[in-house]
User: Fold these one by one.
Assistant:
Number 1:
Amino acid sequence: MDAGGGQEIEQLIRLLGRLPGFGPRSARRVALYLLKEPQTRLVPLARALEKAGDAIRTCSSCGNLDTLDPCHICRDPLREHAVVCVVETVGDLWALERAGVHRGVYQVLGGTLSPLSGTGPEDLNVAPLFARLEAGQVREVILALGATVEGATTMHWLMDRLVAYGGVTVSRVAQGVPMGGALDVLDDGTLAAALGARRPA
Amino acid sequence: MDAGGGQEIEQLIRLLGRLPGFGPRSARRVALYLLKEPQTRLVPLARALEKAGDAIRTCSSCGNLDTLDPCHICRDPLREHAVVCVVETVGDLWALERAGVHRGVYQVLGGTLSPLSGTGPEDLNVAPLFARLEAGQVREVILALGATVEGATTMHWLMDRLVAYGGVTVSRVAQGVPMGGALDVLDDGTLAAALGARRPA
């Protein structure tokens, strides 16, 4: 017996141990923290999880996770809907939003092209972007992909497809994103600089 | 807006950010991980939290957190109920159980004496131990408290009270070099204790 008693406690520790950044030790620590004062710690968290799980939607337009579909960004009339920033993950979108450096909308690919992990173009969430491009609703596409091999591969694939749309400016975030770095761990200043110094692709 | 949308998501991130070892960044990472696949990640965790919260009891005998009261240790007839190991927290109890080094029962104090944080003897869960001592049910008390100022203060206070029970053996866990530990990373206090408690090889 690992946790000292109770199938329910062991199951909780097992699930906590699967969270990113968690090991058995941190899972036990968090479980103990929660179980020590269930009413003020465990119950509110369980309730918040349930509410978020019920409310969560994937935006059918951009791929963002939100409680609305279309998400609050896609339905915001004050944003520049003709400027689309392409990111890999929702975490990247959140990072750019926290930095407040992009006034347009987004397209969340949900991944990158990767022959190794078997991710092909058909796995990327790009259809809504090309639909908007076809409809002539896009003036500029900003490629904000990570400076990784997969990010670069994905960017080149996208650029190849974007040349078909003559009137559309395609730019990429400036190098300044550290090699091998993911966007969502960068500080706001770096994100702002990278976006501000974007150049024609 | 921090999370990119939805009061429910923000509330979840806020609560996750309060967990021990969490900051805003890890809270967002875990929230994203859970929200990305709600059915296989978020819902099972919410359910496990709810179940554990419903099932959890504080053992009225030793202070352990379990789904039973008395806990599975206190009701185990194969354990030596006359040997009581005194620990500070349920986490300490779980650690000793994982190590499988104690065949008796426990008394979880739930804290240590600390004038700074205002924890006095009346805040410690010691009444069940003294009730058992009064009833003559205890042969040995093992003090397994942390090697901190508060742990030492608590231990001395307990030893003062335990001398009243003449027939009871009182011992304390040894201080020294941890298994696998190198000497040059240990603090002076540990080295002094380890050297002072040296025994014939």
Number 2:
Amino acid sequence: MRALILAAGRGSRLQQSEPKPLTPLLGLTLIERIIFSLKQKGIAEAVVVTGYRSSEIIEKLKERETGIKLTFIENPEWEKGNGVSALRAKPILENEDFLLLMGDHLFDPDILEPVSKKNDNDKTAVLIDRDLNSVFDLEDATKIQIKDGVPVDIGKNLENYDAVDCGIFYCTPEIFTALGRTVSEGKYQLTDAIQYLIYKDRLDIRDVTGRFWIDIDTEKSLKYAKQRLLDSLSKTTDGAISRLLNRRISKHITRQLVETDITPNMVSIIAFLLIVLSSVFFALGEWVYLLAGGILVQFSSILDGCDGEIARLRFIGSGYGAFLDSILDRYADSLIIFGLAYGYWIHNEGLLVWALGFFALIGVFVFSYTNARYEAIFESSESRGIPLRRDMRLFIVAIGAIINQILITFLVLSVLTNFEVIRRTVTTRH
Amino acid sequence: MRALILAAGRGSRLQQSEPKPLTPLLGLTLIERIIFSLKQKGIAEAVVVTGYRSSEIIEKLKERETGIKLTFIENPEWEKGNGVSALRAKPILENEDFLLLMGDHLFDPDILEPVSKKNDNDKTAVLIDRDLNSVFDLEDATKIQIKDGVPVDIGKNLENYDAVDCGIFYCTPEIFTALGRTVSEGKYQLTDAIQYLIYKDRLDIRDVTGRFWIDIDTEKSLKYAKQRLLDSLSKTTDGAISRLLNRRISKHITRQLVETDITPNMVSIIAFLLIVLSSVFFALGEWVYLLAGGILVQFSSILDGCDGEIARLRFIGSGYGAFLDSILDRYADSLIIFGLAYGYWIHNEGLLVWALGFFALIGVFVFSYTNARYEAIFESSESRGIPLRRDMRLFIVAIGAIINQILITFLVLSVLTNFEVIRRTVTTRH
């Protein structure tokens, strides 16, 4: 399935020098985000209609490797309205169903999932949001009135309405018939053609209430969109420390880093080097170094979230990145325990610290190993039990170092991790 | 797709008390092996025609949970010939394509893969083996003469022949027409119906040359079949020590254990307990204990192959078994290193053994971890590089303990495993 993106309009309410589709938004331009979202959902080809400052947009997109085939159509009459722009794509798309998107609407890529499925009655369909309170700028939104599940009117100034048009459409070639008719009558907006389809009873609705989407039209909506994007970076698998502490800080770091050239793998390596440094501090054994090392460990733990956040924001997550990150994490975990054990030993000598350190290392490792094996064998994640993901383990280490209780730290890690591994091994059986 | 198994004949040349389909063969009866092979290849339902000592076979199969739906047909006229037995299944299978198998033929389950695919011309097809030298008892085999890819004659006593009938058929309902005709003419063998199809140009051939199959008719063929089954237990991923040493011994142990009630998981646990014992020996630190521990480690390494071998022989391999085995292996690896370090330390004290032990443990763990992560992320195995699978690592430990060189053993393990992990992390990038 192909997509049609309307990126010809002006968007005069944003205070910026770029044309609206090129609005920078956390490391990518708005239109790049739309294109990468399409790619993520399996769309391999898109047609982009440009108008206002057309060549800038085309040039910018051409120099960027998007991994999706782009065809550009220039519409010199863009000022008339977006219906005219959509009609320009007729020669390319008139024989197929396609997705129609606005070049200034940001959305959660998952919103496209129910859309790409063909409907039985061969009607064009509009994505609607029924949660009017969640619509960012309701006054400016295109409203839809619905009766018994059927759309009966559309427009910005409806008095009675039940939902809002999200600016995404599943189109059948019929849309071009409607556009041809309305444009020839001097009605140049896409909404005019949609209204025509409604009157002919040829429009379906698809309810995507609950999914995020926003029409980026003002500075305020741009700011809100950025915040929502950053909020979406948390993962459902995040542990408690990650959720309550790390993510809150890492998002701010990510917001800065994503605008730079730093790659996610570079961030993984920096977080690892911080752990190397803190392990050296730990190995010195005196309390002031333990304190510094503990703080560094927690900071590295926070930074450890940024690599994935940047990758997801830029749509460049890779299997290799996840692989590298997890290998570095295991070495980091080991170095911390070795550093702590060595630092304790040079001041206190004796067997105990090595024995406890060994069992802490074994527990931490087998815990991570069961996660990986479980995933490899059963192709799903084990998520119940004691929450001992890395955020929690590093937090235990940081606190233990700061309060200078190495043996107790090792004991806690050993008991919790090994107990949890045994629990998993027993319960997985059933 | 359903299967039809002919298990009505007598098989008088085997010196045993059981009817032929109940011949014990490494923990399962011959007909159970056939049924589990079908199940492994996705067949969910089979029709079994019995005759000679019918009730014994039915009773035996009914008391066993095969996980495949079985329907039994008793053929009182079984002594006439197997064509009569096959014809008995007509009321059940006359409207569908099905697999036809002999209840006394053992085969590599993979032989069924090209069979289950329907052919275009709607002909019945016979599986053939063109490698006449590999046929176990060529004299007794059913031969097929082929001209220009088309079968032209079939029979035990053909003078000119190009291949041998493996006793497995992809049947269309046409087979019942052929059987009805030949049986009514007093020709009671399945081969008669196949010959009829050949004369009518309604038989296809499917070449499965290279796949193992055998008609179990004599004590000699039974013995050969057992040997081939045991040989098939080696895995393509086996390391050098496994291939050259462990498998050669583990097969003999498995051959004994598979006839008992011992489960694969019990074997995993016994192998683990042997490692616990050897770690206790190692922890005592004196050479005589190291020697004993080293030998025990190598024996446990051999036994570690038996759990999977028994599981595969009995068709009871499970995700949980693989999970449990790998978790126990990681704890075993850890205990060995801890035992060796402790045993060395009580006699020599000092930091060095703990430091080296730590890095050996880290290397061994991260090595196993990269395997699991690689599999989870890329859904394939990393198999290049230094061969450091568990067979090799335990061999290094066993030799190191026997020659009483703990520090060198740790050093070798640390350097090799960590080097290999780094190599993988770098090369996986490309």
